[in-house]
């Protein structure tokens, strides 16, 4: 731990010594190991705990919260490098404790290791204040209850610089850090150049302020009259969010709750607020507290982002505030030196449950909204054949004129028992055509507002989408929307639970269909995946053709293949403009494929399948008929993006055989291939191609991750399963009688 992340300073010290020794002839003897000077150790550790000014502020504010303060004020000068001052009205520090206050490992919060299991305070390592004295000048002013005056004392390198001086003081403690990193030139330099440290501090205080709503927070620049964060204690979380993040955020939030109390799966309670689909932002804001600790949890954040990415218009990211409470013994708080991350018992289950809840909130809010829109905008009866112009007119004028007073919108929807949501709903334009299709409608209406000219309202697309809707199997829809993903039963089938039933679902078929549907829904509104190396179409098509006839006899036909490749390339170059505009498939004038569409966010297709896809575009698309053409292209994309089996066999189980190196026995050429086997005695393990194996492991693990965290959440939101799926083996109900039988069934599947 002392060499890891020790910051730039220690590194620099090492380099300097090396330079000095560079002139001395190289000595081969091992260097002598010696004990580091105490002050060096402390400074290294300090650099780890206090990485930036904002980490110091976090530690100080947490100390103030631990001291039961109700008011915490922060003043910052020069991004925190010149001055950080945190004043609170907490219980103060006793006079007798001042001499050891800033020594390492002095704390009032923990005595035995076991206490960690039930620790309620934020601090416990007794390192923060000590660290600050090793990298800055610390002054503490404090007064405890019942005292007539307070004390002030300054610290350096863990010790008091003088006896505490009596002084006038107001209730609580003020801690001042001056000249942070004064003795760490490199770090100071990097930080001086970055302008955003103050912003980071403001961001931190904002987060604390919306969680600890019974505490007044303020944060200002030194000398500034106005505070950049200013929160007043309140009993309403939403009020706190409004005062810190603004009306535009608070207006678009929905309350969310989830919990579980089943020790065999998970035990937790979550409450918070999440943004609805009206909220627009470029960056995700995720404020997460776990057992009162401000922490990060990348897995949870990604899981939620996936759900939003599929729902919100392009580039819009959610605002999330969540507080999760678990039994203290289920949380390991001691996994990160700055306590920024924690690890949880049954983290996967908890994340999945929360993800589901977010999803259903979003869906309900969207459905409620569509309903709302129908209420306030009685529909002129128009059918699918309505012209582009009339649609545009109605939607554009709709968005301008429909300003419904908020009070009239409250509780018009009896379907939503909560009702309260509606005070935040805004009426959005919506063309009559799309009204029936839930989420779709909302997304399309958003698109229309953003870019009415470009709206993809080609009749053929609308027809294809309504084909999907009318062909949807309601029973399967219910399963897809409300199932719980249990895991992969084998390479192709996922095991799902729906009510009391278990199902096996073919993820290849499902993903193919979902991708197809999403292409139609996102038609002409794709984000792009940029290929790092543009791929020449002729080569791709040649590859695919060669793959197609694996019969070596036919290899003589290369000339013919080249001809086909050339013709197809020409054809696709002619269609390039349309492919680009509607499907984000970009082919440049030289016939290189350089861009592909994002169909589901956070998911890129298996690039090994590009050749097949390009060939399919060239061969299978009927370019004459608009509807057929769009359908075929969408289907080709669907096949390409489907979560099919990776080309490398699954390395678990028997699949591992594939990764054994096929070494011809006794072959003299052997040496070249097996330089690692110097000893001559061949160990079984060494025969495995580890590089390929680990590549395969990564690919398969990624696929599984995508299935669980991208495919299933998106399916719940968007998939309209076609009736054919009920009979073509995509869904198979598992008749489960005993666990034993189930296990036998699994074994049977694997065989
Ligand atoms: P930790 O918080 O891990 O105990 P610190 O170095 O942050 O370690 O603080 C050391 C001790 O100083 C705390 O345990 C606490 O008793 C005391 N302390 C620090 N800041 C304050 C404060 N603002 N008010 C009261 N006591 C404080
Ligand atoms: Mg502390």
From TrEMBL:
SMART domains: DNA_mis_repair. One of its GO terms (biological process) is mismatch repair. InterPro entries: DNA_mismatch_repair_CS (IPR014762), DNA_mismatch_S5_2-like (IPR013507), HATPase_C_sf (IPR036890), Mlh1_C (IPR032189), MutL/Mlh/PMS (IPR002099), MutL/Mlh/Pms-like (IPR038973), Ribosomal_Su5_D2-typ_SF (IPR020568), Ribsml_uS5_D2-typ_fold_subgr (IPR014721). Residues 1-24, 370-403 are annotated as: Disordered. GO terms for cellular component: MutLalpha complex. It is found in: Nucleus. GO terms for molecular function: ATP binding; ATP hydrolysis activity; ATP-dependent DNA damage sensor activity; mismatched DNA binding. Residues 1-11, 370-402 have a biased composition (Polar residues). Residues 241-363 form the DNA mismatch repair protein S5 domain. Keywords: DNA damage, DNA repair, Membrane, Nucleus, Transmembrane, Transmembrane helix. The chain crosses the membrane at residues 730-749. Belongs to the DNA mismatch repair MutL/HexB family. NCBIfam families: mutl. This is DNA mismatch repair protein S5 domain-containing protein. It comes from Liquidambar formosana.
